[in-house]
């Protein structure tokens, strides 16, 4: 048997895109870490399954779940009606929202309305991209990774970025992106879920594990570790 696999513990193959700090990203020595990483491992521990990560770009995650080449994903993925037709989501595990980011000192951009006709960078396939695409006259530049969108903003190539507020705030806080700030109110209220193939037999197990760690304090510990709250 495999190392660390006592008894017949199932191992779920979990898709991840480790460039979305603090949810999933690499440590300086290359290990995958983050809130979602600790979360799914704790869920597995609570519900009796092991986890093996597989790197997949964000916009490839739902197709991979549909094809059945992975069993689940942790991707700070917002539960939406459209996605729920293609995959089955666990119960929500995190509340987030979209925020507008600009270069410090930018005048006149605070709301979605202010972004009409502006150039906006987003990560492909995200709720941020969808929101940006609905802005009249906006020119959208799409990137494979959220950090590339923020770099484009930092380099002065776009007027704004729309993406998940916790990710932009973390990038600013950890100092990789001086000169960028979040402005205005959150644009949306969104809840992250763990997507699995439609009607996956693993869904109830994942939900059971989530419920356990929400109740036994493990979730609160993981939250504290990554968000210092
Ligand atoms: N929450 C947003 C969405 O579901 C962004 C997620 C991006 N996740 C990632 N791992 N890059 O569309």
What's the structural blueprint in terms of helices and strands?
Blueprint: E1 11-16, E2 25-26, E3 32-33, H1 35-47, E4 50-55, H2 58-67, E5 72-73, H3 81-84, E6 87-89, E7 94-96, E8 98-103, E9 119-123, H4 127-133, E10 139-143, H5 146-154, E11 160-164, H6 165-173, E12 180-183, E13 190-192, E14 195-197, H7 203-215, H8 218-227
Parallel strand pairs: 1-4, 1-5, 9-10, 9-11
Antiparallel strand pairs: 2-3, 6-14, 7-13, 8-11, 8-12
Helix pairs in contact: 1-7, 1-8
Bound molecules: arginine.
Question: How would you sum up the major sheet?
Answer: 5 strands, mixed
Give the overall shape: globular
> Going by CATH, what is the homologous superfamily of the largest domain?
Periplasmic binding protein-like II
**Number of helical runs?**
8
How many individual domains? 2
Strand order of the largest sheet: 10-9-11-8-12
Round the Cα radius of gyration to an integer and report it.
18 Å
Kindly, what is the distance between the CA atoms of the first and last residues, rounded to a whole number of angstroms?
A: 41 Å
What percent of the residues sit in helical stretches (DSSP H or I)? 25-40%
List bound small molecules.
arginine
CATH topology of the largest domain: D-Maltodextrin-Binding Protein, domain 2
CATH architecture of the largest domain: 3-Layer(aba) Sandwich
Order of helices and strands: EEEHEHEHEEEEHEHEHEEEHH
User: What is the CATH class of the largest domain?
Assistant: Alpha Beta
The chain-level structural class is alpha/beta
- Residue runs with pLDDT of under 50 for 5 or more positions: none
- pLDDT averaged residue by residue: 95
The count of strands amounts to: 14
* Share of β-strand residues: 15-25%
């Amino acid at each position: 048997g495999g190392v660390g696999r006592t008894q017949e513990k199932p191992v779920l193959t979990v898709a991840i895109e480790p460039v979305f700090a603090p949810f999933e990203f690499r440590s300086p020595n290359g290990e995958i870490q983050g809130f979602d990483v600790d979360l799914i491992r704790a869920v597995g521990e609570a519900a009796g399954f092991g986890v093996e990560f597989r790197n997949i770009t964000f916009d490839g995650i739902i197709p991979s779940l549909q094809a059945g080449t992975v069993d689940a994903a942790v991707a700070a993925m917002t539960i939406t009606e459209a996605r729920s037709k293609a995959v089955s989501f666990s119960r929500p595990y995190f509340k987030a929202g979209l925020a507008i980011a600009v270069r410090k000192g930018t005048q006149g951009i605070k709301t979605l309305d202010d972004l009409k006709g502006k150039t906006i960078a987003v990560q492909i396939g995200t709720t941020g991209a969808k929101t940006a695409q609905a802005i009249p006259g906006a020119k959208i530049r799409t990137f494979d990774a959220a950090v590339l969108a923020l770099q484009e903003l930092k380099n002065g190539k776009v007027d704004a970025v729309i993406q998940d507020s916790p990710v932009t705030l973390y990038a600013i806080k950890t100092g990789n992106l001086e000169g960028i700030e979040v402005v205005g109110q959150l644009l949306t209220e969104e809840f992250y879920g763990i997507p699995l193939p439609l009607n996956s037999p693993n869904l109830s197990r994942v939900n059971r594990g989530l419920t356990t760690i929400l109740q036994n304090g493990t979730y609160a510990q993981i939250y504290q570790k990554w968000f210092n709250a």
